Amino acid sequence: MKPSGDREGARPAALELWGGVECTLVRIGDEWRDQLTETGHRTRPGDIDAIAALGIRAIRYPILWDDVARDGPDALDFSWHDARLARLRHHGIRVIAGLVHHGSGPRWTDLDDPDWAAKLGAFAGEVAQRYPWIDTWTPVNEPLTTARFSFLYGHWYPHRRRMSATLRALTTQCEGIASAMRAIRAVNPAARLLVTEDFGRVFSTPALAYQAEHENERRWLSIDLLAGRVREGHPFWDWMQGDGVTRDRLAAFHDGNATPDLIGVDHYLTSERFLDDRLDLHPDVVPGDNGRHRYADIEAVRMPEVAAHVGTAERLREVWARYQIPLVVGEVHHGCTREEQARWLLDVWRDAQTVRDEGVDLCAVTLWALVGAVDWRSLLVRREGHYEAGAFDARGPTLRRTLVGALAAKLARDGTADHPVLDQPGWWHRPGRFYAARHDPADERLPGRRLLITGATGTLGQAFARICHHRGLAWRLTTRAELDITDPASIAAAIERERPWAVINAAGFVRPCEADARPDECFSINTLGAEQLARACRIAGLPYVTFSSDLVFDGQLGRPYLEADSPSPRGAYGRSKAEAEARVLAANHDSLVIRTSTFFGPWDRHNFAYGLIERLKRGEHIDDVGDQTIVTPTYVPDLVHATLDLLLDRETGIRHLANSGEVSWHDLARSLATRTGHDPRLISAAAGAPSNTGLTSGHGLALRPLEIALDDFVTHSAPLAELA
Fold first, then answer.
1. 505 located within any domain
2. Residue of 61, 157, 544, 573 marked active site
3. Would strands 630-631 and 202-204 be described as parallel, antiparallel, or unpaired?
4. CB neighbours (10 Å) of residue 159?
5. pLDDT for 419-440, tens place per residue?
6. Which residue of 53, 261, 446, 525 shows the fewest CB atoms closer than 10 Å?
7. What pTM, to 2 d.p., does this model score?
């Protein structure tokens, strides 16, 4: 039986921060996607200590049926879980155990199995016997979402596309939840049930009001079933029986014993949808079809007519009003740039505080995907290796705390957070978010504390200004007349005048081929200027970023260079950068030095890629850029985005940033020729001793593959369009 009175006094004195590890284990065709493996959490036991250091009070943690019982119901392997759960207990973190997370169960069963619920219940009993101290359980994560993605939209196994199958799969999962909790409470009568779901509301044009009404009723089905609300008169009572869910199956919930003790509201920026039959307004959206209308299904946050009715607070109020069951925000994650992730976390935290102050019984906000997630932008359907960081970046040998993690630690400690990027609102609040907006980003004035960027006339400085504006980061780009990095007085005056929160040095002597003829000028700008800025930032207490080059290496190591490799420059340019690295870090050990390679970008003509294609278009035969030196060319937008993320995460020391994938100059030139429709035979291999100045990272910081960056460059380069 369900315990009575277990909700009394459940609300803590202050809003708590909980955490969660993205742990989806789902079958797609004959393959399995395992997020614990893909994010590396499965093989990094030290993650638990890093997570504990955030100060979170509880964690949604997997003890997945698909994982523990993969070889059969009598072959349970808890060894991995024993070690990690013991470590969580050692740190005093309460565990909320998840048993099925977007899956259909182990390979030897699935949601079409009539005994699925009983089998899950038997497994839950085994888990409860092994870990009787766990007091809160999520036997099945987001049952309605899983049913939709697997049985209505066909994304996951068994890849169905029928509403009848969706309703049957949902009922099976809810029966599994009830069966699991009966078995768990046989061990621990006080065990609590946390059921998570995405309750995103659907809006529409008048013509599609009937479809929106259907989806808005459907979003309650998992909780309605468990709470015994699906009775005669419920919008889905007759529908579910018509689709094969018998009256007896529905009646089995009517005693209310499966009613959740907590409801986890999993809300994302894309959770709320707008259905629009005006297809001409959305030419880039593949329309849906319900047999009656064709329509675009788009993010409601981008439609001005419903903007006032979207958001976490609105959905929390709705769920509370309907059920009067204590709530948690079950997942907070945003797969976007670092500062937008931070803004979303703070927005949700503030919304939770607001509705809590209004009287909603809400106890916690759960920071989801603590160690990140992989390929969720395609719902795991495509293996692209697209990683989204969370509180930590897990791409290195150990976890690296991000800005999100730093803010989470502050929220956990005292419920407050501050950072200059929070001076600006998230993109979901800015004027340019609406699809119909006639908005020029240049008209958007960004308030708050600013970044100071040197190098106004250079490719890198211009790119930083453009991308900072796109990301909603207030910035000030300075010319040499406004900030001369070779003049300490000019540096001090600019810092006093602009009062930035960080400085990015994008200025420099940028022509390596001229450096040997002008070594003093090169040294003054690249070395002394970078050093003086570092010293000024140390005095002012400001984070500082400057750039170095792969040319600090002579290319004779025989492999790509790591950050720990000793510089060995050959020319004046490389020597100026190597000396700058040493002086900058000596003057200010909190500096961030980014080593990168020859870069190319989509917004100007001052790069080797544009120059090459311009010559090819003129029909020139090229024999001066085709040698066999191995390099790692770097796409400017990728470089700038990654640098900003590292700056926001307060990384220091030397870091390598280059697009992954080594290539010779000769092969790179031929690849660009082919991509732009020119004859690669116009490019001859030039003579020269082989070398490899490619960069790789010991910190797991490689940018996306070079091949993808080259495709992006060719597709989006404004100068190339002018050559067409």
1. yes
2. 573
3. unpaired
4. 14
5. 999 999 999 999 888 887 655 5
6. 53
7. 0.94
